[in-house]
Structure formats: structure tokens, C-alpha cells
Amino acid sequence: MEISKLANLEISCIFALKIKLKYHFMKKNFITLVLVCMALIHSVKAQQTEDLTLQGAKGKLVATLQMPKIEKGKKVRMVIICHGFGADKDRPLLRTIADRLQEAGIASIRFDFNGCGKSEGHFQDMTVLNEIEDAKKVIDYAQKLPWVSGISIVGHSQGGVVASMVAGELKKSIKSVALCAPAAVLRDDALRGSTQGATYDPHHIPEYVDLPRGMRMGRDYVVTAQTLPIYETAKEYKGAVLIIHGTWDVVVPYTYGERYHQGYKNSQLILLPQVDHGFSTEEARTKTAAEITEFIKKH
Question: For the chain, which residues make up each domain, given as ranges?
Fold first, then answer.
């Protein structure tokens, strides 16, 4: 909970106590109210959201840590959440996942990749490889927290590609992986010269490509994407994997989710009927968050 909300709660409790004193209510009732207020304040502090600034591949990364209530001496699972191409950590799907995890007693860190959201760097310099390095930096931070029992990773779209490749590289350091509409199509897009609605000559790539959303994609992104060993790296991960893909996804057809599933030895594929790439409906986001939470609780 934000500090301002906590302060308001404390002020409200103090005000209530003053009223009790003013009207000389019974001592027993007064003590009960004190205990209730103290317990409420304690529980609010135990479940909190904290803004972080971490060092990434291209500068400072802005992140959000959500913690559940943690009993003294206990440890909890940490989930690293990766957003998609040109998106940010506060997209509705990612927030829904983080909230559901927190309710289930699982911590999470979601962050803006370099050049995205509020993080430092220029979007034109972003590549999948430096996003992988960003994710590894966040994992390094999380692993050093004394109350973390293990790390899982979740990714949406290009963040799914990043999550799968990070897991393939770190292997047993990652407890489990969940991929939402993983965008392995990005390699095929780069080879055919069509990315995010913009077209270019894939054999003579310009210094930059202007995208419809007002962003500028750099040449290094395309060059890197054309030879990116997505499935080859991902399949090196032998742990449990959950893949969730919508059947109405026109950005990344669900056949890419199926190919991920075929490459893994220990994966589960869930196809959501009539769900698009962004999991745009509340029903789709709620369903996805619930499936991911139950999966991580088991793995």
C-alpha cells in the first residue's frame, strides 16, 4: 500500500482514539479499539508496494515490487514480470497478474525495459538481447533479497521471448516459467521485413524504422532479431512451463505458442477462445492471472 494511504489510515485511527477519550467510553472498549487499529496498521505495512530503481543494460530501470504479508523468518517466491515490445510494466494484464500473486502470498517485480516506460535509455537502442540483460539484472537483485525462496519468471509478448531465453540461459536458477502470447514471430517478422506494421528491406536494413505508434526502431533490433535463437535457447530450460495464448491473437498467432509447447519437455498449453494479443478483456486477464498463480504455487 502507498505511504500516503498508510498515513491516512494512521490519522483515522488516532482521530477515533481521541473521540473515545473525549466521550469517556469504557476502558475495555478503548483498549479494544487500540488493538484493532494496531493490527490493521501492521497488516497494511506487511503487504506493500514499493518503487525501485535498478541498474540495467542501458541505464536505470524503474520497477515496482509487490510484497505479500511475510511472517518473521519465512521466505516467499518471487516472480519477475516482463512486458512486451514498446509497452511498460503497468499494462493491465501485468498489474492483474501481480495483484493476484500478492493475494496468494507471492511477491513480484515488474519493470520497464530500457527505453520503455520510465526507464532510462532510448527505444531506438533496444534489442531483445539487451532486454535479456535487463531481466538478468532484475533477477540478480531479487536473488539477494533475504526473504526470497526462489525465482520464477513471467513474460507477455516480446517479454515472453525474453523470459523464455533467460530461463534457457539460467536453467535451474529459475523455478518455473509462464509465457503469455510469446512473440517468437518477431524473428520471422524481421526476416520478411515487417515489424509492428512497418515495412522495410530486410536485406538492406536502414539505420532506423519509424513505427506506426510514433516509436523509432533501430537497425540493431532487426539485425539481432533475424538471427535470434529463440526456440533453441528456450528449450534448454527443463523446468515447468505454462504457455497461455488467445485464439484471436492476430499479432502473434497461437501457432507460435504451440511451437513453444512442442519444444519443451515439461510444459502446459492453455488456449483461450476469443482472446486477443493484449488480453484486452477483464475476463481474459483474470483467467490468465489465476492460471499463472496456481501454476507458480505448484512449481
Answer: 1-41, 48-298
* Contacts of residue 125, Cβ cutoff 8 Å, sequence gap at least 6: 58, 114, 115, 218, 220
Q: Check residue 29 and give its pLDDT.
A: 53
Q: Please compute the mean of the pLDDT values over residues 85-107 and round it to a whole number.
A: 98
pTM equals 0.85
User: Per-residue pLDDT tens for 44-95?
Assistant: 435 699 999 999 989 999 999 999 999 988 999 999 999 999 999 999 999 9
Q: What is the 3-state secondary structure (H, E, C) of 155-215?
A: EECHHHHHHHHHHHHHHHHEEEEEEECCCCHHHHHHHHCEECCEECCCCCCCCEEECCCCC
Distance CA 9, CA 21 (A): 19
Torsion-angle region of residue 224: left (phi > 0), alpha (psi -120 to 50) or beta? alpha
Q: Are strands 59-67 and 107-111 parallel, antiparallel or unpaired?
A: antiparallel
CB crowding 42-79: b at 16 or more within 10 Å, else e: eeeeeebbeeeebebbbebbbbbbbbbeeeeeeebbbb
pLDDT of residue 193: 98
How confident is the model over 179-197, as pLDDT tens digits?
A: 999 999 999 999 999 999 9
Instruction: Judge whether 127 and 224 are in contact, CB under 8 Å.
Output: yes
**What's the CA gap between 57 and 63, in Å, rounded?**
14
CA distances from 195 to 85, 182, 188 (A): 11, 15, 9
Report the CATH architecture of 48-298. Answer: 3-Layer(aba) Sandwich (3.40)
Residue with cell 525474453: 162
CA 85 remoteness from chain centre: 13
**Measured between alpha carbons, how far is 64 from 138 in angstroms, rounded to an integer?**
11
